[in-house]
Amino acid sequence: RNRKRLVDCRSDIDRWNAPFLAIYESLVPAEEEKAKQKQLLASLEKLVNKEWPRAQLYLYGSCANAFGVSNSDIDVCLAIEDTDINKSEILLKLAEILQADNLQDVQALTRARVPIVKLKDPVTGISCDICINNVLAVVNTKLLRDYAEIDGRLRELAFIVKHWAKKRGVNVTYQGTLSSYAYVLMCIHFLQQRKPAILPCLQGMEATYVVTVDDIECAYFDQVQKLREFGAKNTESIAKLVWAFFDYWAHLHDYANAVISVRTGSIISKRAKEWTRRIGNDRHLICIEDPFETSHDLGRVVDKYSINTLREEFDRAANIMQYDPDPCVTLFEPY
Ligand code: 3AT
Ligand code: MG
C-alpha cells in the first residue's frame, strides 16, 4: 500500500473556516461546567481527607488538559503516600467511603489495566473515575495543556479530530483504535512538523519544569506564555490544517518505518526503538511514542484488522476534505 498524494489542496478550502470554527465552539464546555467540576473535586477531597489526611486529589485527562468537550466524565487521581496497604485495598476502602456519602453507582474496578473507582455525583450529575497514584498521567495532562496555550489552532484541530474519531467509531481502545490522548499527540506532532512550525518542541528546550515520577524524569520548558508568537509565521487556517492533517495520515506518514515523537519534535525510526518486531501483543502498526514513558507505544492497541479500519478512515477523511461539497457535514457522519 503505497499511495501518493495526487493533488494540492483544493483552492476553495478557506470557505470552510467559519463552519469548522462553529463546530469547535459548539464543543467547548461552558464555564459553569468547570466550576461544577471544581466543586465536586473539593467535596471529594474533603471526604477522602477524613480517612487519609494528607492525600490529595488531582484532575487529569480531558477535564484538565484543555481538550475536553462538554459533558465529559472527569478523571481524578488520588495521590497517597506509599503505605503498607495495596492499591486494591485503598480502592475498596475508597468505594466504601464514597458509598456511605450517598454518591451514586459506586463501583471499584480493581482488576482493570488502570484500577479505578467509578462514581456519579447526584448533585451535579457528573460521572467520575478515580485512580490511585497515576502521577505520570497528571504530568502528561500538564504537557498537553501547556501546548494548548501556545497556539489556539492546536485546540481547534484536536477538538475537530476527536469529534471526527468519536463519530466514526475510531476512538475505542478495546476495539483496537486509538485513545483521545493518542489523537491529541498526533495533532501536536503534526503542528510541530508544519513548515513553518506552528508548535515548538517543549522537551527540546531549556527545562523550567522538572519532576521525577516512577524513575522517569519529566522535564520541559513550561513558560509557555513566552511562546504565544511562536506559530505566527505560519498563517494556515483551521480548514487547511484539518485538510493537511488527514492528508498526512492518509498519504504522507511512513507506517512501515516511522514513529511520531512529540518528545523530539520529529520522526524517529522504528529500528532505533526496536519496534520493528511484534513482541507479545505489541505490533507497532502505527507508532506514537509517549512523551515521557518512551518505551510506550500508544499505537500498541492497534491490531492487523483495526489498522485497516483506521487507514480507511484517514483516506475517507482526506478525500472528503479534498472533494466533498459539504465537508463539515460529511466528515462527521456516523459510521
Ligand atoms: P476523553 O475526552 O475522555 O475522550 P481524555 O483526554 O480524558 O479524553 P482518556 O479518558 O482516554 O482521555 O484518558 C485520560 C487521561 O489518561 C489522558 C492521559 O493523561 C492519560 N492517558 C490515557 N491513556 C494513556 C496512555 N496509554 N498512556 C499514558 N497516559 C494515558
Ligand atoms: Mg477522560
From TrEMBL:
Belongs to the DNA polymerase type-B-like family. The keyword Metal-binding applies. Its EC number is 2.7.7.52. This is RNA uridylyltransferase. One of its GO terms (molecular function) is RNA uridylyltransferase activity. Residues 22-148 form the Poly(A) RNA polymerase mitochondrial-like central palm domain. Its cofactor is Mn(2+); Mg(2+). Pfam families: MTPAP-like_central, PAP_assoc. Keywords: Cytoplasm, Magnesium, Metal-binding, Transferase. Residues 237-296 form the PAP-associated domain. The keyword Cell division does not apply.
